[in-house]
Amino acid sequence: MNYKKSLATERLLIFLAIFLMTFNVIAFVRMSGIDFSILYAASSLALQGQPSLVYDVEVHHQTLETVMGTELPYLLGWFYPPHYILMTLPAGLLPFKISLYFFISLTLAAYAFTIYKIAPHPTALLLALSFPGVLMNLNWAQNGFLLASLMGLGLHFIDKRPMIAGLMLGILSFKPQYAILPYLVLLIGRHWKTLFWTTFFSLLLMFTSALILGTEVWFKYIHQIPVIRELIANDWINVNGINVSPYTTIRLFSYDTDLAATIQTLLSFMVVILVIWTWIKARNDYLRNTILTSGITLLSPYILVYDLTLLALPLAFYGWDIYQRGKLPGELPVLIFTFLLPIANTIIVESSGIQITSVAVLVLLAMAIRRLTSLSPVA
């Protein structure tokens, strides 16, 4: 009877995945590339020998509008460090549409490969490609696939292939707010070889970008950091519908910026302590990585809906642990809701103005801790 019930559940999940994948395919075909134009404009300016102008918000935005062939009613700026300009230089060598599809296809393939490495099962690959976080990333044509693949492969190879893990985590420094926790656990977990290679590749990227793009671009970036922070803070009202951070959740609910900032700070501190404790005490790599990759989405006051592609990582790590050791009561509904969260959050925030992502991730974290303390480690 249990076997039949399990088989029915698996068939239902596969049907749901195939249904959701149709939306992802449609989104892929219809991509406008609105956020990819940020990358393309930066690459174009750098190829024209003007990389420092990437950090001139007005110039970059004008270049972006030229690329898109239309005026935009909102400002889109480049908030990444210079070595990401170096990484994306080839994008500007191709026509915009070709470059867009090449970038998204390449990073989507890397994302799918990453999930399959974590959970090597055809169903996991199907679920990864049908994940609503994929839809969000395609709608915005962002770098969520790249982010998830770098973090996922870095954590997967952390002990098996230190050099590969270090390369992945070193490149991850293009989004420093997401690199903090992975770098911390390398130190806490005494993964010295991976820490060495991560540091080596991070510094190599920075020095190479200064060598090729010039040191001026780094000075301009450092000078612009306070301006970038101010732009993000002032633009909160325009992005609160897609900013899924704890800060936004509390601010939308209470309209109190001080309360939102206080809770965000406390929650970030608690996540760091939890990850440190897990890396010191736990021996289950799948659940340690679940807690790290889900907790990282609570760490920053600025995480946008397309970054929820990252949630595919804790779902893969957690799901593979269930595949190996069986599930506990209540786990499946939480995992299914987390799977649907990127689209569920969008629907709820548009209808009620309430962000639910942070609450859902906290439930997932609590469930992972329960599993960690309830079951014996993998043999």
Overall description:
- The chain is an all-alpha fold.
- It contains 19 helices and no strands.
- Helix 5 (96-118) packs parallel to helix 8, helix 7 runs parallel beside helix 18 (331-352) and helix 8 (144-156) runs antiparallel to helix 9.
- The longest helix has 28 residues, at 2-29.
- The two termini are 28 Å apart.
- The mean pLDDT is 90.
In short:
The protein has 379 residues and is mostly helical.
- Pairing-aware structural class of the strands and helices? mainly alpha
The biggest sheet amounts to: none
Total helix count? 19
* DSSP strand count: 0
- Shape field: globular
Mean pLDDT: 90
Keywords:
379 residues; 0% strand; mainly alpha; 19 helices
List the helices and strands and how they pair.
Elements: H1 2-29, H2 36-47, H3 57-68, H4 82-87, H5 96-118, H6 122-130, H7 132-140, H8 144-156, H9 162-171, H10 176-188, H11 192-213, H12 216-234, H13 236-239, H14 246-254, H15 257-281, H16 285-295, H17 312-325, H18 331-352, H19 357-374
Helix pairs in contact: 1-6, 1-7, 2-3, 5-6, 5-8, 7-18, 8-9, 9-11, 10-15, 14-15, 15-16, 16-17, 16-19, 18-19
